[in-house]
Amino acid sequence: MKILVLNGSPKKEQSDTMHITRAFLAGMQEAAPQEVEVIHIAEKHIEFCVGCFTCKRNGGTCIHADDMKALLAKVLECDLLLLNFPLYGYGMPAKLKAFIERTMPLSCMKMKKVGERYEHIGQADFAHLRYLMICGCGFPNSKGNFEPAVEQFKLLFPHQHTILTVPESPMFNVPEADVVTKPRLELVREAGRQYAAQGTIDAGLVAQIGSPMIPEEKYAAIANGEA
Question: Hey, CA dihedral for 87, 44, 157, 97, is it positive or negative?
Fold first, then answer.
């Protein structure tokens, strides 16, 4: 499988969430050989979309001459698009959101009704694509935190999507927390193995991965400097 990882963290390789993604990819590699390319979005030149819709009218050419043309070509060439990002403002970090907005050249102005909603008709063939979201946050649990990012991802990629969310993710960059982070990363590796083998992850395993690694109150106390 050809996998394109778009790392949306401003911390690039030092991203807390990249620990999760690397474990997932390691699990996939254990199941079968994978071709993986990691791109740190923070290193790319991506102008903001200005909403002119020129790309939707002229066959997909944007007015901006930056890195997006090459990035979109890579997206269309991959089998799995993996978005790795930390939760910022209950959504994606700004640079990754700018990337998402600049995918407008992939569709045209014409619309069609799909189920109960309308979607722009594609100008490129991306029916083969699968989508994976791996998102971590610094809160003690998942309640009332990940929902906006999860719903946005589902709307952006309504088909063939898989989502992993992990609270307390700053602990992955703390060596002293290995006693709880290593077992969690082993669960993530198993998720990668399952995904590579069957294209899905068991719901129970997804829930385990998304649960707090240490008690919520203890994590909050540590984060607040009270422990």
Answer: positive
Handedness of CA 87, 50, 125, 155 (dihedral sign): positive
Q: Could you read off the pLDDT of 97-155 as tens digits, one per residue?
A: 999 999 999 999 999 999 999 999 999 888 899 999 999 999 999 989 999 999 999 99
**Both tokens assigned to 197:** 């083998």
* Strand 117-122 versus strand 107-114 pairing type: antiparallel
Token couple for 164: 């992993």
Q: What is the pTM of this model?
A: 0.95
Q: Are 225 and 218 in contact (CB under 8 A)?
A: no
Distances (CA, A) of 200 to 71, 181, 205: 26, 23, 11
The two structure tokens encoding residue 114: 């799909």
Ordered by where they begin, the domains of the chain are 2-224 (3.40.50.360)
C-alpha to C-alpha distances, 133 to 35, 55, 106, 201, nearest whole angstrom: 18, 26, 20, 13
How high is the pLDDT of residue 126?
86
What separation in angstroms does the CA of 222 have from each of 141, 165, 169, 211, 227? 14, 21, 13, 18, 5
For 206-226, the three-class secondary structure string (H helix, E strand, C coil) is HHHHCCCCCCHHHHHHHHCCC
CA–CA dist 218, 227 (Å, integer): 8
3 state SS of 29:
helix
Judge whether 71 and 44 are in contact, CB under 8 Å: yes
End-to-end CA distance of the chain: 45
Give the Cα separation of 6 and 82 in Å (integer): 6
